[in-house]
Amino acid sequence: MIISVFGDAILPRGGTIWLGGLIHLLEPLGLNERLIRTTVFRLVKDEWLTTQTQGRRTDYKLSSSGWRRFEEASRQIYAANAPHWDNRWRLVMLLAELPLRERERLRRALYWQGFGQMNANCFIHPSADLTSAFDALGVDGMADVLPKLMPLVALNPRLGHSANDSDMIHSAWDLEHLGANYMAFVSTYQSILDALRKSKISSIDEESAFLTRTLLIHDFRRLLLRDPELPEVLLPAKWPGQAARMLCKELYRRLLDPSERHLDNHLLLANGEAPLASDMVAQRFQAGPHVAQVI
Fold first, then answer.
1. I need a surface site. Which of 4, 14, 64, 140 has the fewest CB within 10 A?
2. pLDDT tens-digit profile of 228-253?
3. What is the set of domains in the chain, with CATH numbers?
4. CB within 8 A of 207, min separation 6: which ones?
5. Coil, helix or strand for 194?
């Protein structure tokens, strides 16, 4: 939850917040002060955050690696549409033996980037940016593994009775469980959106708007962590992930203004100042569909 708040609310305001301000923001969600302090200290230890002392108060600021991680996540979370596909597959081949523990670490790192696994030595994705994938592995402390990996871009020549792209999807990913979770997300938030459609923007309580926005993005982000972000052409018909994205987009835009007013008053630095939001917030869910890149 704290990671979701940093990415959604704090990143556009300079990526820094006073610990007391963070505690105050999250208190209505049932997160107590001790839990928040423990979690923030852990994020510092894991190099997501750094500290900056102001007298007896402490600001917590996104580290350079933390900032990069959040910016990459933001591109996926707030994209207006699924990526287009150039009909080429991105592969990462493991060309050397790794100890079991290190192999599992590599598998998990690529899984969180959306790669499916064809076999023990082959990871695949239709639209991942291979340069970013390798950079992320380096940031995650796996630079020594990179010389053992071969990035490839492959094109299916569609010969005779060969397997097709849909067969590749079914071999590398299990979308059934993810689809059910997207349907549950839509079921949870549709009634909130319906109620807001019937109300006037001025009637929405600012704190409630912020809390609802936080839960919305937190739940959507948790789904996206398990979503390989496949191009729409490769997804099953009536894929519920697209309905979930459209719902999230509309509900987020309806909550944006009152929730930002709440942050104007309550997202504080240790010196008592309230940093202004950049235009990053207004651009969310507004960009056109993104195209896969080649290394």
1. 64
2. 888 888 988 889 999 999 999 999 99
3. 88-155 (3.30.70)
4. 28, 262
5. helix
